[in-house]
Amino acid sequence: MSEIPEIIQELIKFRDARDWEQFHNPKDLAVALNIEAGELLEVFLWKSPEQADPDKVREELADVLAYAFLIAEKYQLDIKEIMLEKIKKNNEKYPIDKAKGTAKKYTDL
Amino acid sequence: MSEIPEIIQELIKFRDARDWEQFHNPKDLAVALNIEAGELLEVFLWKSPEQADPDKVREELADVLAYAFLIAEKYQLDIKEIMLEKIKKNNEKYPIDKAKGTAKKYTDL
Amino acid sequence: MSEIPEIIQELIKFRDARDWEQFHNPKDLAVALNIEAGELLEVFLWKSPEQADPDKVREELADVLAYAFLIAEKYQLDIKEIMLEKIKKNNEKYPIDKAKGTAKKYTDL
Amino acid sequence: MSEIPEIIQELIKFRDARDWEQFHNPKDLAVALNIEAGELLEVFLWKSPEQADPDKVREELADVLAYAFLIAEKYQLDIKEIMLEKIKKNNEKYPIDKAKGTAKKYTDL
């Protein structure tokens, strides 16, 4: 089994051992993801990027990823496929000659 | 190459072709992740979980994952490793006999 | 003094007694606001709207409002003015005859 | 009528003219608040605090405040009262002699 399905299998095993699927509707999973994204952001609050504690980033990023993977599983989305597909779309949205060296949003290019 | 490093390699290729590493400090990556998590959440706003458009979930989830993977890369974190490690920790934080069937936070178990 | 300036004055007094203005640049205030918005959202996680604890809503909402008011102060924005102005704009963006009874975004009306 | 009730009255008038109370359960209002907080944060993305566009801050902050005020109304919370109460609590949580000049969280003081 490749990596991503293996991780998802472990997440599901953890969830099902606790009978938590009943709570994991996709809306609450998206809510949980936002809460965890906020906790990850808190590692950087009032700090320069360099001052953030890497061990805390590690902890909080794992939580963010867990909910992201569970949402993918809920919709039977293939994570590699949707990410490569998005990179392809962004290649068109942000053509290199226009986007190079600027942080502007595609709507402002 | 296994899946996750392959995806990260594509993200980096996209980033470097646009000379965007200069903007991608970890704090702004965490900011970007929160913005994308908000956009994913918007797919569910004023709706029951079933009413959300799966195609929009697909799009927004890919953006969330992209920034999560870029943060992992920035700190040289192995995504599979940190996720399995977190599941192990949560196994202790949420013992099956106490956590089964309840959505309570570990602090309230 | 009317209510809003009075609240802001108390927030500033609290901040300045701790010499915290040095940390309160507008970007970190917006980061802090997002973290607090996430904590407010957590009160509703895995729950129906009715199951949320009103005392926790009270606590977390106060934190959200504090950072929102501090951002207003930072840019010398008059909270009443910007809110009434926005309602006026939304009156045009969401004409009653098109928006009545539907939760659609203005871009989909 | 004082300022805050006056603003809330305008928000309710806008809402009721569109028959939107049916969508405004407190959980979705908290979801909406998070989405708007993310849009406010986007004004600062990839930028130093000084580079953010004040006109965009004004727009997005008004949206954040609107949902915060609507949540207060939903729970019949007096905004001034809960904010002053929170400042009082924070005065105890962050004693001046320990908190002065440091951005540490109260749990680390």
Automatic annotation (TrEMBL), chains A, B, C, D:
Q: Which CDD domains does this UniProt record tie to the protein?
A: NTP-PPase_RS21-C6_like (cd11537)
Write out the coiled-coil annotation as residue ranges.
none
Family annotation (InterPro entries): dCTP_Pyrophosphatase, DCTPP
Q: Does the keyword Hydrolase apply?
A: yes
Q: Which domain of life is it from?
A: Bacteria
Signal peptide positions (record): none
GO function terms (MF aspect) = nucleoside triphosphate diphosphatase activity
A Pfam cross-reference name: MazG-like
Q: What is this protein called?
A: Nucleotide pyrophosphohydrolase
- A GO BP entry: nucleoside triphosphate catabolic process
Q: Which keywords label this protein?
A: Hydrolase
